[in-house]
Amino acid sequence: MDAPVAIRASGLTLVYPGARGPVRALNGVAFDVPSGSHLALIGPSGSGKSSLVALLAGQLKPSAG
């Protein structure tokens, strides 16, 4: 039996205003995290890890999704 979904992201997009125009930090991110599982966010600097966490925590509102 599948575990219930604790976190669901669907089409998350985040665009920041930038000096040279909009900067797309996240584009169409989608994933499910089953209840009781762990999630690790890894990637290079500037890849959107902190932006994703801020969206999931409700500190930022997504541009879409």
Protein model, in words:
The chain has 65 residues and is mainly β. It has one domain (5-56). It is 12% helix and 37% strand. The protein has 1 helix and 2 strands. The chain has one helix at residues 49-56, and strands at residues 5-16, 23-34. The protein has a two-stranded antiparallel sheet. It is elongated, with a radius of gyration of 13 Å. The mean pLDDT is 94.
Structure at a glance:
The chain is mainly beta. The chain has one helix spanning 49-56; strands at 5-16, 23-34. The chain has a two-stranded antiparallel sheet.
SS-based class: mainly beta
Q: Tally the structural domains.
A: 1
Classify the helix fraction into a percent range.
10-25%
What is the element string, with H for helices and E for strands? EEH
Discrete helix count: 1
Q: What would the keywords be for this entry?
A:
65 residues, mainly beta, two-stranded antiparallel sheet, 2 strands, 12% helix, elongated
List the helices and strands and how they pair.
Elements: E1 5-16, E2 23-34, H1 49-56
Antiparallel strand pairs: 1-2
